[in-house]
Design brief:
binds zinc ion, three-stranded antiparallel sheet, globular
């Protein structure tokens, strides 16, 4: 029996103690960021300490889910079995209102509409029971 090339599951994020609150939030439809009480800045991805000032006085807060496209690209060729049937698809860096940038995909949006500075809002894609990936759509 041969394995069909496109049957390999996509790689998924690995949930750790450090990022578990983020993924728990996504499952509840909330985009959570870490916020530093010392320097009043948000950060993403999750870390044990503030990337701006080194403080360990960080907590989880809910982000607005809104941002703009900072940069994006359209992938026309991806020979990896996990993605070969998805082309063309986009990969975007979203500048969140709170400051951090997040790599994701723009969905539910005509690809011809994609442009830098396009306002977007988060949507959650339940890829399995544990992982609901944050993606973004045009506002
Ligand atoms: Zn800080």
């Amino acid at each position: 029996m041969t394995m069909v090339a496109d049957s390999r599951p996509k790689p998924l994020p690995i949930v750790t103690d450090e990022n578990r609150p983020f993924w728990d939030g996504c499952r509840q439809g909330k985009l959570l960021l870490q916020y530093c009480d010392q320097c009043q800045q948000h950060q993403f991805y999750p870390r044990l300490y503030c990337m701006h000032c080194g403080s360990s006085s960080i907590r989880w807060v809910q982000a607005s889910g809104r941002g703009i496209i900072y940069s994006y690209t359209i992938i026309y060729q991806n020979k990896s079995p996990e993605f070969v049937r998805d082309t063309p698809y986009n990969v975007a860096v979203v500048q969140l209102e709170e400051g951090p940038r997040m790599m994701s995909n723009i969905v539910e949006t005509d690809p011809a509409e994609l442009r830098v500075d396009l306002p977007v809002t988060v949507v959650f894609d339940a890829v399995n029971d544990d992982i609901h990936l944050p993606r973004f759509k045009a506002l």
